[in-house]
Amino acid sequence: QVQLVESGGGLVQAGGSLRLSCAASARTFSSYAVGWFRQAPGKEREFVATILWSGSSTYYADSVKGRFTISRDNAKNTVYLQMNSLKPEDTAVYYCAADRQPLRAAVTTRTANFASWGQGIQVSVSS
Questions:
Q1: Are the beta carbons of 64 and 47 closer than 8 angstroms?
Q2: Angle subtended at Cα 110 by Cα 41 and Cα 30, rounded to the nearest 5 degrees
Q3: Shortest CA distance to 29 belongs to which of 59, 3, 49?
Q4: What is the band of 28 on the pLDDT scale with cuts at 50, 70, 90?
Q5: What long-range pairs does 18-21 form, CB within 8 A, spacing at least 24?
Q6: Percent helix, strand and coil across the chain, each to the nearest 5
Q7: Per-residue model confidence as pLDDT tens digits over 57-68
Q8: Nearest-angstrom CA–CA distance, 89 and 110
């Protein structure tokens, strides 16, 4: 099973930027789609963005489209989430997760399709 570790979180003012990284332990990481999810206090975990194993396809939640960019460097076993124009409502614990199924043909946003989760990292945006 792939083990994932998030980094890059922190406190930023509204309008600022952060880049999250999700580093994987397994060399087979390049065969799996990766998703970013977030959970704010008192709310359900929600989908943020996902990228196909090949990097050829991405998908975003409407709330972050145009502000966040997901990318991956399979040579470094790392997926990134560049977050620009941050808003206070982006405040949450962010998690990365790897798909259960290797070499999936199309992106998925279903939480149940992701099996390996990182420990999460806090992102706080002040107004």
A1: no
A2: 105
A3: 3
A4: confident
A5: 18/83, 18/86, 18/123, 19/80, 19/81, 19/82, 19/83, 20/80, 20/81, 20/83, 20/94, 20/96, 20/121, 20/123, 21/78, 21/79, 21/80
A6: 10, 45, 40
A7: 999 999 999 999
A8: 22
pLDDT tens profile 69-117: 999 999 999 999 999 999 999 999 999 999 999 999 999 999 999 988 9
d(CA 81, CA 96): 9
d(CA 67, CA 88): 14
Three-class HEC string of 100-113: CCCCCCCCCCCHHH
